[in-house]
């Protein structure tokens, strides 16, 4: 058994206070810190005001990322904006898009990447591998992606209709801060979709070909907490204690799949998000129950997985997931996302991502994905 995750984690209502002490040790006041946030309503939050007060003694360059799932063109535009400056560190405050952007910047800024073609080449050919990244700190404002404790960064490529990834073991955060003050502005729909993303991370990590005992324990812990508290959080969105529980669950899920990666559910989700705009967590969750049944015979400790969900079957898991999607006002039918039966061949062709579908415990054929998606239309 092997497990590796070097991220320094601070979790609790005093996370912001620890952040102050960490920055004082990590960064000099002579260098420049790049602050990337999700902008919008976060800029009016108490968390943002606190963060600004913490960073007041330092030289800070601040940018807001206001697009979800930024693609290679968005990243290239941001690199152009940030060029001409040497950054001592990066602080990323946001959801998975913001944190993944920070990871990409941590690698690409150092080698002067400019333009879409150069960035695409940098990612696809693994030219980032010898780069020693700029140290970055991850502070999630959603509870679901686990990106603060993983080393890879998603870079979408809409022109080529694919998802790319910077997978660099040197690009883990130097610090992850899990503090409910940073998630309190998260709306209900995003609270639900991101938590279900964490459920998928956990479940897929549990059954992945590359799973291990430590990842499985993190996965079960995450599923138990989300299953036990997500509905309560949907009713009491300002409850710091509930937000912290779901935040920790997302962290545990991130720890789980940081060593296993995900499987077929995530692979199938990519074209649903890239082509049709279905939120990532929703796109992954739509197929989780069906693929749990599909994988059933090959999943070790299957009874423990069901127990964590407080369910007796994969069908019950699917029903619970669909009920949660309903709480977030998400449809469980693909036609509500303007997907018809004629779109299924496209989705099937783009549902086989290397390192994801082939990480599934049962070999997946195009006919399997085709049948499953047609039932969801």
Description:
With 377 residues, the protein is an alpha/beta fold. It has 2 domains: 8-181, Rossmann fold, CATH 3.40.50.1970; 187-376, Dehydroquinate synthase-like - alpha domain (Dehydroquinate synthase-like, alpha domain). It has helices at 15-26, 46-55, 72-82, 96-108, 116-124, 188-207, 213-235, 240-257, 264-276, 280-285, 288-295, 302-308, 314-327, 344-349, 366-376; strands at residues 8-11, 32-37, 59-64, 87-94, 136-140, 152-157, 162-167, 175-178. The strands form 2 sheets. The chain has a 6-stranded parallel beta sheet, with helices on both faces. Strands 6-7 form a two-stranded antiparallel sheet. A hairpin with a 4-residue loop joins β6 and β7. α6 packs antiparallel against α13 (314-327). The longest helix is centred in the middle third of the chain and has 23 residues, at 213-235.
Compact overview of the structure:
By secondary structure, the chain is α/β, with parallel strands linked by helices. The protein has helices at residues 15-26, 46-55, 72-82, 96-108, 116-124, 188-207, 213-235, 240-257, 264-276, 280-285, 288-295, 302-308, 314-327, 344-349, 366-376, and strands at 8-11, 32-37, 59-64, 87-94, 136-140, 152-157, 162-167, 175-178. It has 2 domains: 8-181, 3-Layer(aba) Sandwich (Rossmann fold), CATH 3.40.50.1970; 187-376, Dehydroquinate synthase-like - alpha domain (Dehydroquinate synthase-like, alpha domain).
């Amino acid at each position: 058994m092997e497990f590796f995750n070097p991220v320094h984690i601070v979790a609790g209502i005093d996370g912001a206070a620890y952040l102050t002490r960490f920055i004082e040790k990590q960064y000099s006041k002579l260098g420049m810190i790049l602050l990337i946030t999700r902008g919008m309503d976060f800029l009016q939050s108490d968390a943002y005001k606190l963060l600004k007060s913490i960073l007041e003694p330092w030289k800070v360059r601040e940018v807001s990322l206001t697009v979800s799932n930024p693609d290679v063109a968005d990243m290239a535009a941001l690199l152009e904006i940030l060029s001409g400056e040497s950054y001592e560190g990066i602080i990323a405050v946001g959801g998975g898009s913001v944190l993944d952007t920070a990871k990409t910047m941590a690698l690409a800024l150092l080698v002067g990447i400019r333009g879409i073609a150069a960035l695409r080449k940098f990612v696809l050919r693994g030219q980032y591998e010898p780069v020693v990244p700029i140290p970055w700190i991850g502070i999630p404002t959603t509870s679901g992606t686990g990106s603060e404790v993983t080393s890879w960064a998603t870079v979408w490529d809409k022109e080529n209709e694919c998802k790319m990834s910077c997978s660099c073991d040197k690009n883990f955060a130097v610090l992850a801060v899990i503090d409910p003050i940073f998630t309190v502005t998260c709306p209900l729909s995003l609270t639900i979709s991101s938590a279900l993303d964490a459920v998928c991370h956990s479940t897929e990590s549990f059954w992945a070909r590359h799973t291990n005992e430590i990842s499985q324990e993190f996965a079960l812990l995450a599923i138990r907490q989300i299953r036990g508290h997500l509905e309560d959080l949907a009713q009491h969105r300002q409850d710091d204690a509930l937000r912290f529980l779901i935040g920790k669950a997302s962290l545990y899920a991130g720890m789980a799949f940081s060593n296993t990666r995900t499987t077929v559910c995530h692979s199938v989700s990519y074209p649903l998000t890239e082509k049709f705009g279905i939120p990532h967590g929703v796109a992954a969750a739509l197929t989780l129950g069906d693929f749990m049944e599909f994988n059933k015979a090959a999943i070790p400790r299957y009874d423990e997985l069901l127990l964590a969900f407080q369910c007796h079957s994969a069908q019950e898991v699917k029903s619970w997931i669909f009920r949660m999607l309903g709480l977030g006002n998400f449809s469980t039918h693909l036609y509500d996302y303007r997907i018809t039966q004629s779109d299924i061949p496209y989705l099937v062709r783009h549902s086989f991502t290397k390192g994801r579908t082939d990480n599934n415990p049962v070999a997946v054929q195009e006919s399997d994905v085709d049948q499953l998606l047609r039932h969801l239309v």
